[in-house]
Amino acid sequence: MRGMAGGWAGGIPNLVSIREVGPRDGFQNEPETIPPARKVELIDALARTGCKRLEVTSFVRPDVIPQLADAAEVLERIDVPEDVAVSVLVPNERGLDAALEHRAKIDEVNVFLSASETHNRKNVNRSIEESLAGLEVVLGRAREAGLRCEAVISTSFGCPYEGRVPPERVLEIARRLKGAGAQEIGFGDTTGMANPRQVGELFALWSDGLPGVELTAHFHNTRGQGLANVLAALHAGIDSYESSFGELGGCPVPAGATGNIATEDLVSMLSEMGIETGIDLPALLACARRVQEILGRPLGSHTLVAGPVEWGS
Length: 313
Description:
alpha/beta, 12 helices, 313 residues, 40% helix, globular
C-alpha cells in the first residue's frame, strides 16, 4: 500500500487507513457517564462515514474504567455494516474471555503495554515482562478464535517518568508481540512527546526491523504536534493511523496527557494533500458535532470549528 502522491519528494502513501478509536479511547476519559444509547448512536453514525475500522469499546474491570462498564450492551446493540471491522481492546485473558462471548460482533482485538517500565506499572500494575507473558497467551488464543490482532506499544516515543525510551527496546517488544501473533503493531505517542524528526527516524528503524507486519501510528496532540508527526510518518511510508473524532481521549496517567489527534483534522489534511482515506469529511464532522452536543462542551478539533477547506468554484 505504499505509493506516491504526485509532487512530493520521496514516496508517501496515496492511500491511508484510519482506525477510529473515539468510542473507546475517547469515551473512557470522559468524567461523566455517556448513556449506552448515545454511544450506540455515535458508533452507528461513525460506521457510515466511510471509516472501515472502528474500536468500539474495551472489556476492562468496571471499577477501573466505569465508563466502559456497558461494553457488552453496546457491542450487542450496535448496527455496523459488514464491511466495517469492529475491534475491542482487551487487557488480559479475562478481558478476552468476555470479548469472546460476543465473538459474532467482533473482527479484531487490540492488546497493549508500555515500552516504559514505570508507565506500564502505573497503567496496569505489571512489569513489561509480566505484560508480555500475559499478552502472548491472549494473542495466541485470539488468533485461534479467528480474530485479527493488533498490539499497541504505549510510550514508544518517550515517557514522562523515564524520559527517552530506547528505540531498540521498543523494537524488541514489537518482535515479541509479532512472534506471539500480532499482525499489526501500533506505536503510541501516549503523552504527546514525539517530534517529527524523531518520528521519521524511528519509523524507518521499526519498518526495517519488522517485515511483514502492518505498522500503525497513534499520535496525541497534547503539545500541538500531532499532525506534524503524521506528516513525518507519511514520509517514512506509514499508511495506517489511529485517531479520535472531536480530538477526544488521552491517557489516564499522567495528568494532562490528553488529546488524540482529531480524526476530522487528519482526514482534512490528508484530503488536501491528495491522499485518499475513503472517509466522508462532512459526515465525520456531523459525528463530531453530535458528540460535542452530547458532552455539552467545546472540543479541541480545529476542523470542527473552522469547517472543511472551501476553494470555491
